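Following the same procedure, sequence and fold were stored together, as reproduced here:

>
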Amino acid sequence: MAKKTLSGQILKWFAIFFTIITLGSAIFGYFLYNKLSAGLPDVKTLHNVQYQTPLSIYSKDNLLIAQFGEKKRTPVNIEEVPQQLINAFIAAEDDSFYEHPGVDFKGLLRAGLQLALTGKKKQGGSTITMQVTRNFLLSSEKTYTRKLKEIMLALKIEHEYPKNKIMELYLNQIFMGHRAYGIAAAAQVYYGKSLTELSLAEHAMIAGLPKAPSIYNPITNETRAVERRNYVLHRMLELNHITQQEYEDASRQPSTAKIQSVTPEISALYLAEMVRQKIFELYGEQAYTSGFKVYTTINGTLQTTANQALTNTLHAYDERHGYRHSRTNKAGDLNGLPVIGDTLPAAVLRVKNNLATASLQDGTLIEIPWKNIKWADRATGRSPLQAGDIIRVRQLPNNIWALTQIPEAEGAFVSLNPANGAILALTGGFDFFRNKYNRATQSKRQPGSGFKPIIYTTALEQGYTAASLINDAPIVIDNPGQENEWRPENYNKKFNGPTSIRSAITHSRNIISIRLLKEMGVEKAVATALRFGFTEEQIPKTLSLALGSGYATPLQMARVYATFANGGFLVKPYFIERIESNEGEIIYQANPKIACPACDSSQELNRNYAPRIITPQICFLMNSLLRDVVQHGTATGAKVLGRQDLAGKTGTTNEQRDAWFNGYTQSNVATAWVGFDDFSPLGNLETGGLAALPMWIEFMRTALKDTPEIPLEMPEGIVKAFISPETGLLTAAANKDGIWEFFQTEHVPTGFTSTSGDSITGSDQPDENPTENLF
């Protein structure tokens, strides 16, 4: 009886103890749950999740230019994911995903027992839903508290979202190694494919990565990666996702993974850097993670043409100045040499019958014909190459190889739409990776004679005409503060006596522009330059301004000439057409002020129109003058294009330190520049017409293809009169030396030159009026 009483008491006390423990645990669990719940993030935020996605830059015609951002990611909708790829992840990570409530309690129990029996944490029991909570809502710390939060959040997520949404979140967020996040990025990084192009073996390889992206990586550890892939395939077989035959075929396949970089569809790296800086200026570090898509104003075809034109022009200049080959390089150095621009390192294997055979870095054998070598040794006519030489080669458009070298001179090119200032093509140098200095937008170079249209615009506004005569004769100018006087010369060191403004600009007579500036006053030309967008800092207040002694960038010079091309308006260059968010929403759309030559003065005041800075009459006269530069003057090389609507001006600075051509039609304005970064002379005869114009011609050959010529239409206020070129005065139609010239109505000459050359004024003028047949 006593034993029963004792036994009953023990049971009683045990029941009390158990009740207390249970009640205490419940109370503790309740308070713990409330405490943890209070600090849990809101799972509803996953409705508007923002993936960290790189900045992508495109041309206007939707060609990829560049991407910027640490994380490579391309978010996809679950509908875009092949079912077999989803099956692979189910097999690898969570085979009961579509059955459990977000937590695999059996798996957690197994992990708990393992910990209790061995004292070691066993990885496992973590569902796809729990991984979503870890990747989106929690920190990466490994604690029991975080595990509890993970379980609680997983249950909440399952209550809030359908399974497919959870799977979509997971597949877009997971880290896959080599900076790839999400399955679409992994497909691109490892295989260079879209999701729909992946094979079954590739599905399994990608699905095997999340467990340990470094250990099971097919690039860094192919053996372990294939083992993991085959494990995933076997699990797919066990779950009846694939057949036995599919399993055997896929598991026998070798790994085909290779690091695939994102390949730009066009090369516009200088422009891409301009975009990157602008977007970073607007959005800070968010620029690289928000998935912005920036569509630029660049035309893909024109950009490619500009790149090639600059490259060919610099090679042509370099070849005119000789071969700089040194035999200090050994054949063993070949693999350590970089590819620079379009030049590839190669080792000469043999030279026979003026044909050189060479090996590229990858072992490819090439042949270089004599016609593409002879430039290097014009003196002897013999090949300058011998076996063992390390050289540089480039492949020409016809796939023939040529001997080359890295150009020492540099160049820049920019093309604008003159109607609105959109940059159509831009390149700032031979090789962006070699030197990121953007000469198209950052260089401060003297524009030389390319500035003269500013001087002549000023002169026409002051009442001079295209027929006004200025004496092309020696001039001596005192330089205050300088020991010697300035004795300027024309490029050919000749003087031509009285010369019309038309002839002066056509043949780029320096003396005429200096005398003209002296007569008008420097301050008037400075005021005109400021209207054209120059700043006070750029413009010297001396007579040297007549020869372009200030400074400008190629982009700025293109802007100047856009005014002549568009009818007299100052447009603002821009390069971002629109910015889209990661969801495709347009968050910025360019709205440039445009030129409107057909508008009247009241319409031009509309805020959507660019400001008019020269009248239609002055613009017409300048176009007439600048077209003569191409047809009869320093840019006649451009006549090879076979068009009458080309206009522009060459520019060459002292000692040929800069060579320019600024030219245009009504649809396209472009500036080409060649020079050395250290301002060294380009060499004798390396003028704008020889060194820079070929770049412009090559570009315009493509840019103007299928573009009809636009005749120069004479506006109201302009008349055409028959004059004597010797006097600039009206002359009789019978004068065989007479020419037709354009004038503003208020500046038509009133004097008359007889057929004998005598000037007649007032009542002595004959009855015949040479302005009767104006058109």
